[in-house]
Write a structure and sequence with these properties.
Blueprint: E1 2-4, H1 12-19, E2 24-27, E3 34-39, E4 50-58, E5 69-75, E6 81-86, H2 93-101
Parallel strand pairs: 1-2
Antiparallel strand pairs: 2-6, 3-4, 4-5, 5-6
Length: about 100
């Protein structure tokens, strides 16, 4: 499993890892284009540090990736808003946030 801090040059790298069945949790860049958002987990703990949890596509139309990804937004311990993309669809958003913070 790859847990990285913005470790990609192009969104297509995420598709490459997805196709190779390599699991990842990767922080999104601040200017990441996220579109076609669909709610994912409807019930996460109301007192958790998770702010958003949805499935979406990434990238511009000209460089859009093929697959959709699980996007989790949360507050880290310093109060920074963090957005991560993952292909781990079976994990709760709180677990995904904890994985990233423990890297």
């Amino acid at each position: 499993m790859y847990i990285c801090d913005r470790d990609y040059e192009k969104y297509t790298r995420l598709d490459d890892m997805y196709e190779k069945q390599q699991f990842f949790v990767i922080r999104l860049k601040k200017n990441a284009l996220v579109w076609n958002e669909q709610p994912f987990t409807l019930h996460y703990h109301p007192h958790s540090h998770v702010l958003e949890d949805f499935v979406a596509h990434l990238g511009f139309r000209s460089s859009m990736i093929q697959y959709h990804y699980h996007i989790v937004s949360f507050m880290d311990l310093e109060g920074n808003r963090i957005h991560v993309a993952t292909n781990l669809f079976r994990l709760k958003p709180e677990v995904i946030a904890e994985l990233y913070c423990a890297r």
